[in-house]
Amino acid sequence: MSENVIIFDTTLRDGEQSPGASMNTAEKLRLATQLEKLGVDVLEAGFPVASEGDFDAVTNIAAKLKKTEVAALARTSKGDLDRAWGAIQNAAKPRIHTFIATSDIHLEYKLKMSREAVVKAAVEAVKYSRSFTDNVEFSAEDGSRSDRDFLCKVFEAVIEAGATTINLPDTVGYAIPEEFSDLVKYVKSHTPNIHKAVLSVHCHNDLGLATANTIAAINAGARQAEVTINGIGERAGNTSLEEVVMALHTRPNYLPASTRIKTDQIYPTSRLVSMITGIMVQPNKAIVGANAFAHEAGIHQDGVLKNPMTYEIMKPETIGLSANKLVLGKHSGRHALRSHLKDLGYDLSDEELKIVFKKFKELADKKKHVVDEDLEVIVTEGILRTTEIFDLEYLHVTCGTTVLPMASVKLSINGRSVRGAGYGNGPIDAAFNAIAKLAGAGSELLRFSISAITGGTDAQGEVTVRLSENGLIALGRGADPDIITASAKAYVNGLNRLEYLKAHPVEVVA
Ligand code: KIV
Ligand code: ZN
Hints:
The protein is of the alpha/beta class. The protein has four domains: 274 residues, TIM Barrel (Alpha-Beta Barrel), CATH 3.20.20; 31 residues, no CATH class; 49 residues, no CATH class; 114 residues, 2-Layer Sandwich (Double Stranded RNA Binding Domain), CATH 3.30.160.270. Helices cover 40% and strands 20% of the residues. The chain is built from 16 helices and 16 strands. It has an eight-stranded parallel barrel, surrounded by seven helices. Strands 11-12-13 form a three-stranded antiparallel β-sheet. A three-stranded antiparallel β-sheet has the order 14-15-16. Helix 5 packs parallel to helix 6 and helix 6 crosses helix 7. The longest helix has 21 residues. Bound molecules: 3-methyl-2-oxobutanoic acid (KIV) and zinc ion. The site of zinc ion has 6 residues, from loops.
């Protein structure tokens, strides 16, 4: 019988630290609900001391989830720990996750603390956390670059103080699998009370080795993996949940552990994360990329037709990627829509259903078959983006081979409609210029990308933009059967996200 690996998902905390990936509370709640459906054991909901918005989101998630443990991150100070506990105290299963760096480079330059002072701070933080809950995780930040014996000393002390999980992060993504496996074994054999806690790992992907390091650590005895959906996160990201889970699932003969993840929820969760954050999944991404199950070469196609297992080591259905998706059309009623949305994980109120149904009918008029991906767009754009400042009410463009591209736009700004026009070197440029003028936007467009949500010429175009203003970076996303409208929606969404970031400053955490 294989042992269980606890899946600790930090999409909402470390994942949100991806540049531009900020999410509002409604979006975080929706994602948290989906992560519970996916079956993650622990969900790190945020860093409550970092901002009011984070505190609110963690509080709401803690109140909502009943099966999943909800963790809140805190440094070792009482202020951080009070704030973390304040946000999760009503959770069915709360966990405080406290951390301090243990590598000499962090001690000398960042913390300016001695090793003794770090041990003391870690122990006091764990003891203080235990006065709130008996579920306390301690992380040794930059653990993989720390002196091994000091690391073990810290772990021994925090376990003695009551930590129930100890986490070994490869914070800067520096480790190599064999080396990391060796470190896990070292910690296991040189921390005398290690059997009293769960040993966890948390890897970053700077060298593209996060999954390999995590798997190596599990093979060496770690029993919690800290991961994010699609591997999003700070810099090059974190270990991706789907890669670890599917590696364990696909190679049980080689790997000694399994997870409680409902693998058929992996693809819907991946889609939801890219939809909400605006961070698209690269086509060749393992497990959830658009090409992960696509066979281009004739010899492969021939083999797969004869027996899928010739070239497919996993079935697409196992991750929830089904060819037989239920399609709805313009004759589908409100009842069918509600029940299908419920299957997708959206339990809408009557008021919300009214909004979604109207948008669904509008789309079904333009597009014969409305599939799951289309519905996700409608719900994300119509329901989750609640506190919007700018709303695109109307867009008209003229363009072609003989005219100067021009766009006229009606924008609602805090509920007040304004109109304007703009020129550009193409219809998208013209639309952006018109919107920017009306919104008084001073942001710079760093990136623009476009793709199709599904196959077929009537597919919706999906546009993402990356905007920057005074050091803030926001991603915007929009979808529409018309790609110029999709672009304008993405730009307006990016502007809204910038406004959200300005209104919710995040404390820089050292
Ligand atoms: O990467 C890291 O070290 C972290 C810790 C807070 C666990 O994210
Ligand atoms: Zn991290």
